[in-house]
Design a protein that fits this description.
about 35% strand, alpha+beta, about 70 residues, single chain, four-stranded antiparallel β-sheet
C-alpha cells in the first residue's frame, strides 16, 4: 500500500468530509481514507497497482471538489 495526501478545496462542513471520503473509498484499490476539514487535506492509502493518483483526483472532482496532490 502507498499513502498520498491531497489538498481538497471547496469543503466547508461535515457533509463535505463524508462526500470526499465516500468518493475516494469507491475507487478500486483504496484501503483507507482520512479527511481533515481544518487542514483541507485528504490522506489516502491505496494499492498503486490498482488505483492511480489520477483516479483518486478524478473521484474527488466528480464529488464536486478540487483536488491537488500535496
Amino acid at each position: 500500500m502507498t499513502t498520498t495526501t491531497f489538498l481538497v478545496k471547496g469543503m466547508s462542513c461535515g457533509n463535505c468530509i463524508r462526500h470526499v471520503e465516500s468518493a475516494l473509498k469507491k475507487v478500486p484499490g483504496v484501503g483507507s481514507v482520512t479527511v481533515d476539514l481544518t487542514s483541507g487535506e485528504a490522506m489516502v492509502e491505496y494499492d498503486p497497482s490498482i488505483a492511480t493518483i489520477d483516479n483518486l483526483k478524478k473521484a474527488v472532482e466528480a464529488a464536486g471538489y478540487e483536488a491537488n496532490a500535496a
